[in-house]
Amino acid sequence: MGRALAARNLTLNERLDAAWERLMAQDDLGVIHERVQLARERDVGFRGAAPLGEPVNAAYPLPPLPARATILAADGSQVYPSIHAAALYYLTNIGVFVYHHGTEDLPEQITEPALFYSEKDVRDENGQAITNTAVNARRNVAELQMLARETWNRRNADSPLLAISDGPLLFWVGKDVPDGKRLEQDYLGALVHLHDTHASAASTYGQSASLIGYVDRPTSAFVVSLLHLLGLDDDDVREAALKSNGDLEGLADQPLMFRLLKPGERSAVMVQQSPQNKRYHDKGESYEIAFFYLNVGQSGAYHLARVEMPMWVARSQPLLDQVHALTFDQCQLMWRYPYALTRADELAVIRAAERTRLDDMIEIELLRNEQIVERSEKLESKTVRHGRTRYRPK
To answer: 347 Cβ partners below 8 Å, 6+ apart?
Structure first.
C-alpha cells in the first residue's frame, strides 16, 4: 500500500507541474472566454470554471478589514425517520449565530426545531418512508430560508451584513426527493429574499448584504478542467474529450492553489459551468453562483476553502473585498474555519441523549393517547448492545 501511494503521489506531482506551467501561461482572458464559449455552443458537457474578469493565474491580496459588520451564520442537523421507532417522524433543528464584528455587542443565538410526523411529510407518493436524502434537502432549504429571514430582520444595521451558509450554494435534488421542484423554488425564493435585503439596505441605509457558501477543504477540479479545455485544439472540443481531464485526470485544484496563494490571498473570481448554475442565471443574472479559492491558513500552515457567492456579490468590488476580508478574519478566530459557522453548528446539533429523550417523550404521549407502543426487536437489540436501559411509563 505504501509503495502504491508513493507511486500515485509521484504521478500527481508530475501532473501538478504540468498544470502549473499551463496556468502560468494563461495571460489572455479573451482567448479563455472564446474557448469556454465554444464549449458552451457545442454543448459538450464542460463542467469547469470560467473567469469573470480577473486573470486566472494571479493571486489577490487580503483587503483591509471593515471596522464593523454583522455576520450571520446558519447550520442545521436532523433526526432521520426510522421504521424501527415507535412512530414515524423526523426532526430538523436550524441554528443561526449572529456575530457583531468590531463592536462590544454580545452575539445572538437563535434555534428553530421542527417536528414532522404527518403522512404527507414522512411518506412519499407510494406510501414509503421518505429517504434521508429528502430530509437533507428539506433541511438545506430551511437553513437558507431562516438565514434570509434573520438577515432581512437586520437590514437596518449601520454596518455591512454578511450571511454565511455551510457548504455549496448550488442546490438541486434527485428523483428520490418527492417535493423536489417545490424545494428548488423555495431555495431560489430565499436567494431572492437575501438579494432584496441587499437592495433595501443599500437604498435606505447605504449598507450592503452579502451571502456566501463556505466549502471547507474542497476537492473540486474546476480550474484543472479549464486548463484541460484550454489545452485542446478547437476540433477536439467535444464531449468525448471532456469526459475526463486528460493528462491532468485525478488532479484537484487544491495543490495548484497552494502554489498560487499565500495565506490571506484569494484566487480570481470564477463561475462553474453547469446546468444547475444556468438555471440560477435564468432566474436572474444576480443569482448565478460564482466562487473564489481562499487560503485561510497561516504562515507555514496552508488551508484551502472555496467561497461561493451570488453574482450580486461577485460583480461588486466593495462587496467582494468585504467577503474576502471578513471570511479570512473569521477563520483566524477559529483556526481555519469561520467562527460564526462553528457556533451555528453547535446550536444546531442534536446529540444522542437528546434524541433518546425525544423518543421517550413520543412514547409517553402515545401511551397517554391510548396507542400501542411497539418498538422493533432490531432497535431493542441496539439499545442493549450500546449499554442503555430504557424505562417506559406504566
So the answer is: 75, 95, 96, 97, 109, 110, 111
For 234, the grid coordinates are 478547437
pTM of the model: 0.90
What strands lie across the sheet with 90-101, from one edge to the other? 49-51, 270-272, 289-295, 304-310, 209-216, 161-166, 69-79, 90-101, 108-116
Q: What is the DSSP string of 351-380?
A: -HHHHHHHHHHHHHHHHHTT------HHHH
The DSSP annotation for 250-274 comes to T--HHHHHHHH--TT-B---EEE--
pLDDT of residue 125: 87
Helix segments in 231-338, DSSP class H = 239-242, 253-260, 275-283, 311-314, 317-333
- Judged by average pLDDT, the poorest of 93-97, 224-228, 271-275, 385-389 is 385-389
Look at the block and give the residue holding cell 437528546: 354
Question: CA-to-CA distance for 68 and 159, rounded, in angstroms?
Answer: 6
- Ranges of H-type helices in the chain: 2-24, 29-42, 119-122, 132-152, 180-205, 222-230, 239-242, 253-260, 275-283, 311-314, 317-333, 339-348, 352-368, 377-385
Interval 69-108: pLDDT, tens = 999 999 999 999 988 888 899 999 999 999 999 999 999 9
pLDDT (0 to 100) of residue 100? 97
